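Hello, quick one for you while I still have it in my head. Could you read through the record and tell me how the tokens relate to the sequence? No rush at all, and the record is pasted right below.
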Amino acid sequence: MYIPTLQSHKIIYVGSFIFSIVPSVTDHHSSIMLLSRSRPAVASTSETSGGSSNEGKLPKLGEFLDKKDFLGALTLLEFQRSSSQASDAKGLASLVAYCCFHLGDYKRALEEYQSLLKEPKKGLDDPTLWLNIACCLFSMGMYVEANEAAVKGTPSPLKNRLSFHLAHKLGNEDAVIANHAKLEELLENQLSLASMHYLRQDYQNSIDIYKRILLDNSFAKLDNDATGVTSHLVDLIVSTSSAEEVHFVQALLQIPREYIALNVYVALCYHRLEYFDVSQEVLAVYLQAFPGSAIALNLRACNTFRLYTGAAAEKDLKPLLNLMNQEDQTKNGMFSSAYDLIRHNLVVFRGGQGALQILPKLVDVIPEARFNLIIYYLQQDDVTNASTLIKGTKIKGTPEKILYAIVNLLLSYETGNREYLQTAQSTFNQVGSSENEHDSVFGRLCMASAHFLSRNFDHASLYMNSVRQHYYNDDTFNFNYAQAKGMLNQYQEVEELLTMIQSEKIRNDFTYMQWLARAYIMNKKPRLAWELHERMETSPESFRLLQLIANECYRLGQFYYAAKAFDLLERYEPSTEHWEGKRGAIIGVFQLIIAGHEPKESLHDIIALLRNSSKPNAEKILGVIKKWAKENRINL
């Protein structure tokens, strides 16, 4: 499966195709990483404007900003800029940049701020301006440049938070620790810390911080009955954690508008923890307030993708897809930051359709795009391109580690190099035994894979059985599970699992045919195994399947089909071994007929088989059979 992305430049997720999900500073009230101010830290237009006409419009601008209607504010500012003198238009640049930043148009915001560097009164020595520039560069994923700009910025809680996240992005753990120590007990700082836990895949600690923020406020004091939460959600939460979580989610469903962004952050964490139902219900409250949020709509689609199908997920994106059809507005306007993200996720939701047209261009933009392109190559059996793309990639998250293990496993099959196999096994074991994944579905699948590769099929089967309900109709899972069961000689289940598979690719795989033929024979259905061979075209693989049928049927006393199989083998490749197998099987059929365990009509078939041989012993055996038939009045 592909991994949808929840947000570009931020986080990597897996499943089988990958998606990313952290909301950016473009969203309403978004202070998960940086402080989202309700007013810019610059002079107002009343101070920069020289005309009374602009002063009359200031209340309207304030109303736009109070409502977080940055598009309306930007429209008004552009009008003011076009109708003002040149000096006044320059004074509006900081406000325009502020609105562009919150609309996700970081490039334009950066250009506006950079234009202010040329101003004589502000210029290169303005620390506030440098901090704003650093925020834009950070949001554009230009972390080295952002760090250089942040150093010149004004010492403030915002600078601490920005430096905290830049240190993480640049892999400087000492700086992460140092900046962590500077974080004070401010709301924005706590949100920033929760974001850092999220980035490090410590989702429960993130939830704990959000819970503390929420439950410390008076609006979170709820009645014990928690009536605002549906019974389904209560059952789900209590079954996986504690009753305290019910009150937490209840608070989220009743949250005041100024705290409503917490719903998005918590929904992201629940999504990562695979509580998709809970994530969806918490997210719905935010979408009621801000139905046009690109990040929230995308997260809802990702939840739907996990719960249902890609087609259903695509329907959730329909409001954004309509905007994407407006090319200029999407690429350069308020949804510019979501444009690549949505295009990427559509590839995921459509099962890889358009992957080669879209994903290569996004490899350096959305981290998940690289891994989804690798998945696409693997689905096309292109291990070479997949291994080339994964080389030099930083493998951090669970999905990437699983993908890395799979690529190494396939390389071991192609090259016969056991080092690749050992790397795959150790990586699977590392993921499956990790604290975050040992009880998750992915973690158990990884442990099953590790045990399978070490030929510990008993443990592999146990792990796979624990997650079978999630993959009951998954062809790949059933194929692997059947092989583990086969190695434990549990052939009734092997037959059941293999016959459930619908994929033509798997059904035409020779390994599948071998296991199914063996299961039929072990379950005393040799005729079905023989019919499986008859449907194959003549090839080395059909010859090997014939050998399997001949030997396994002979070993289990199913001599009729063993004789037929050895007869064909003798004709394809005459040898003493094949003749002796055929002879023994024919004698076995004859004995079963005498004992009444095989229909007498089978005599005609074994006589025909004997006549196909030119061996001297064939005539002797034929004579014995004819004599017995005559004595028992059987007409041959």
